[in-house]
């Protein structure tokens, strides 16, 4: 969890270190707080696990705060995935999973996966949907504030690049 601070995920993406580890698996490869994975190995939706409360609803989001590069993040945060109202096997996928596609030669990108506990069922309006479908310049802090999500309860991240 310390790597969230060491790699500036805390600060750039979230304000505090979440209490729980978000377990993320891509075809048997575990995400481990900044390990490097290839875009090819992360092209399909991962399996996620985190401590859940009975009856609670959750939001999962994946962003790239380094789009198009860590030196020039003019499209940050790039929204790779957004799922809301997760409860048991039920969920609403607002933005379909889109694996990492860092531009060639832009170095390592951080791909941050977060879980938020919802206070109530979320409703996305047309304006939200239209803005999010562009994927660029999404801001998880603003989204969390708008929907009263509070701080993330679980997190993890990996890095990937296109050499």
UniProtKB/TrEMBL annotation:
Cross-referenced InterPro entries: PEBP (IPR008914), PEBP-like_sf (IPR036610), PEBP_euk (IPR035810), Phosphatidylethanolamine-bd_CS (IPR001858)
Extent of the signal sequence: none
Family annotation (Pfam families): PBP
Gene3D superfamilies membership: PEBP-like (3.90.280.10)
CDD domains membership: PEBP_euk
Entry's family note: Belongs to the phosphatidylethanolamine-binding protein family.
Protein known as: Phosphatidylethanolamine binding protein-like isoform 1
Organism: Leptotrombidium deliense
């Amino acid at each position: 969890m310390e790597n969230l601070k060491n790699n500036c995920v805390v600060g750039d993406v979230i304000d505090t270190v979440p209490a729980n580890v978000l377990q993320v698996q891509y075809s048997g490869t575990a995400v481990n707080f900044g390990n490097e994975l290839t875009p090819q190995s992360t092209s399909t939706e991962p399996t996620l696990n985190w401590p859940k409360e009975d009856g609670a609803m959750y939001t999962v989001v994946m962003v790239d705060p380094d789009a198009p590069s860590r030196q020039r993040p003019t499209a940050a945060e790039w929204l790779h995935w957004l799922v809301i109202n997760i409860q048991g096997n039920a969920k609403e996928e607002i933005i379909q999973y889109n694996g990492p596609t860092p531009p060639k030669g832009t170095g390592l990108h951080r791909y941050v996966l977060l879980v938020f506990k919802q206070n109530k069922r979320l409703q996305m309006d047309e304006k939200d949907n239209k803005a999010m479908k562009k994927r660029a310049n999404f801001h998880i802090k603003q989204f969390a504030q708008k929907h009263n999500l509070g701080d993330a309860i679980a997190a993890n991240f990996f890095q990937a690049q296109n050499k």
